[in-house]
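Our preliminary data section would be incomplete without showing what the modeling component actually yields. Below, a chain of 189 amino acids is followed by its predicted structure, encoded as tokens that our downstream tools consume directly.
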Amino acid sequence: MTSPNTGLRRTALVVLAVGAALGASACSAGQVSQTANQVAAVDGGRGEVGDLAVNDLQVVVPENGGQARVGFVASFSGYGLGEPVSLDSVQIDGAPVQLGETQPLERGCSIVVDARENAEPVPVEGVCVEQTTATLPSADDLSIGTSVPATVSFSNGDRIETQAAVVGEILEAGEYTRPTEFVGESEGH
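Predicted structure:
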């Protein structure tokens, strides 16, 4: 025979466990997650369809005008076997981009379209990465600091519609130093 207090103890333990679980879950209630609305650490547009992705799509407008350089990374991920996929065309604000030569993408591979001035392909060992360049013949209508519609088309019929960031010349690392002067005292944050 069980004691009448045993049922009361079980009920108290269940209530205590439920209360602890609710209390623990309420600790972060109302808090803003640091990563919930975090912006990607890249300047350009991005998009994906199926196993194909495009990241950091941007147009670099030279200071002296003329041909703009286009840069992005196209990747073919996923599992299983499948036919390679080629990068067919890119359009920026309705204008066709002149792409350098590329090989079809195998699964797990990427094409880096380098927007640096005078970019030269660099072989990368142990990783399935190909490099090329691309130009936009007429960028006179583009304004730095804006985004324009872009379409990246692949040989399998997939298209990625995104926005391309229009940026000025890309500075090499170490070329820009932030000013050390400041206007007011620190707010003590």
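The CA atoms of residues 97 and 136 lie 5 Å apart. The first helix runs from residue 4 to 26. Preliminary results of this kind motivate Aim 1 of the renewal.
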